[in-house]
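Same chain as my last thread, 470 residues:
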Amino acid sequence: MTASALIAPHAPIRAASISARIDRLPAVATLWKLVALLSLGGFFELYDLFQTAYISPGLIKEGIFKVGAAGVFGVADQAAFASATFLGLFLGASVLSPIADRFGRRAIFTFALVWYTVATVAMGLQSSALAIIVMRFLVGIGLGVELVTIDTYLAELVPKRMRSAAFAFAFFVQFLSVPAVALMSWWLVPQAPFGYSGWRWVVIASAVFALFVWWLRARLPESPRWLAQQGRFDEAEVILESIEARCAKDHGKPLDSPERQALSIEGIGRFADMWQPPYRRRALMLIVFHVFQAIGFFGFGNWLPALLSGQGVSVTHSLMYAFIITLAYPLGPLLFVKFANRFENKWQIVGSALGAMCFGTLFALQSSALGLIVCGVMITFCNAWLSFAYHAYQSELFPTNIRARAVGFCYSFSRLSTVFSSLLIGWFLEELGTPGVLGFIVVSMLIVIMTIARFGPRTRNLALEDIAHE
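reply #2:
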């Protein structure tokens, strides 16, 4: 931002006008198309992210991955692979996510998408456990940047009364990738089409995603809110006028008058800004939340086939059951699209964590195929609900000039948590079996519930700027 933009007396008025004009937009096809385009980027990243659970059996079968102390780092290679993924995610989210505050949501969305697509294809060409794990670390860096950028981008593009529903729809599209990778793995991992291992086909399928990168980029506008905070009002208004014209056409009548509101220009965000009231309390709350929600979410998702095997299910059947269970990932957010805006995001987080805790306990007691699948579906449903609710929630709690930085920093603790919890879960599974792993997950979800219920602020139907300064 230029110095003149910082001191210009009309700057806060223009910024407030842009924010108010976005918040009065109706939830019409134009906005849902933008949400869908962003969601496609998220589909690609979750496809990559959830590969851990589904390609590991193929890597073990081929002899590339070893179990237990025979692994390349003295632990199971699947655990090291998962840890490398989340170590990369931690680095991308904590260190590199602020570039989205500096260079804009649209540019970094594209950059990160290219990064992890290329790195994933390179990973699929490796033949040693060490090389695969190293490449997976590089994939994780790109994923970490992308996850944070999509959250901030989406929150800023849609009006306040549409935010939760927009995140629910976005995660419906994104979570379609989970049954997609599970289905491809169930089909391909036991085979070697054209002489190439099935797990390689699952991984290198990501190359197809690169074809969509520039197509996506050309259809996504920069965030007008971010442009306004940079003092680039003319650019912001050109983009917003185009969106307004299309929304009015979809709506079939003139748009409502924007509500008047006060807004300041924050300037270039700094790391220290995150530790000023009221953001310090929110950041600490999110850090504790992310440390423990990651254990529950990824502890089940990344280890699902192994947990099923621990209950006496064969490898082939565990992949089949896992595919059936993963169908609940997109189903959960889809069912909430119409209802998400009716409830505070903090209470949706609490309710979904409570559900995951209860069904996780029941999963440990199952021995029949039907019982395992039903409990697995319900855990997955609750995890998907938790995911879209907290992604919406964390993007609401900070101002535009530090939104990507703050969300990335807090979110990165879920990645750091998973680096170590992946190793712990591997140990629990070997020593205590599936019940031990699920006990670990249940306790973690209980901490999530207490943290958000006690310290989470309300955000429902409030402008982002009002939440930031509440």
